[in-house]
Write a structure and sequence with these properties.
The protein is mostly helical. It is built from eight helices and no strands.
């Protein structure tokens, strides 16, 4: 009986340590907003970039602006949480949340510049490559997140490969090549973030208030 109680205590300590190490900077609402923004951008692409195959730079600027807005919203939310965390004496989260994404963002930007400047005829590769680069950044981020969140980078990895295979020829640089993967991927991230993190946090806060 004493041995079982000791093992239960060890398991409880491990669970609490895992919870303490879990990164809680990502939130469901910014992820959902990014997904909806991707869908809206896909609907507007033909208005801003009517001939993406012949205007690769315009295509890149359009979706680069969308990505910057999405990332900006996430950073602002994390920064606001940092202000609240400092008031409680807790550690900030913005740097920890952005740092894993920096290598993939830099690599994606470099490859984009090379393709647009030196091989614009290969610009059709960009949507799929962006999804693949993003998946690698998310894999790095997921090391401190609950296991179900690994479904998100796995989705982007599969979507990137599918986009490279399907979004070519007459479908090259189609609005759906960006709107569908990023819209679905971010909404999936929002759902998993809420279900695995925020739902439990709110339950604990409610119990603490009671």
């Amino acid at each position: 009986m004493e041995l079982r109680e000791a093992l239960d205590r060890v398991a409880e300590i491990r669970r609490r340590m895992a919870e303490a190490e879990t990164f809680r900077g990502y939130r469901a609402v910014p992820a959902a907003c990014a997904g909806l923004l991707a869908v809206v951008a896909g609907l507007l692409q033909s208005s801003f970039v009517p001939d993406p195959a012949g205007a690769a730079l315009d295509y890149v600027l359009f979706w680069g602006t969308v990505a910057a807005l999405s990332l900006g919203v996430c950073i602002v939310v994390m920064w606001l949480r940092d202000r609240a965390a400092r008031a409680r004496g807790a550690a900030p989260v913005t740097r920890s949340g952005v740092a894993p994404l920096v290598p993939c963002l830099v690599a994606g930007a470099c490859v984009t510049v090379v393709l647009v400047r030196l091989a614009p005829e290969a610009a059709w590769l960009l949507p799929g490559l962006w999804q693949l680069f993003f998946s690698q950044g998310l894999f790095a981020s997921c090391r401190t997140l609950p296991r179900p969140l690994f479904a998100v980078p796995s989705f982007y990895l599969a979507a990137g490969l599918a986009t490279l295979c399907l979004a070519r020829g007459g479908h090259a640089l189609s609005p759906f090549a960006m709107a569908l993967p990023f819209g679905a991927g971010q909404l999936l991230a929002a759902a998993l973030l809420y279900w695995t993190l925020e739902r439990h946090d709110r339950t604990e806060e409610t119990e603490a208030e009671d």
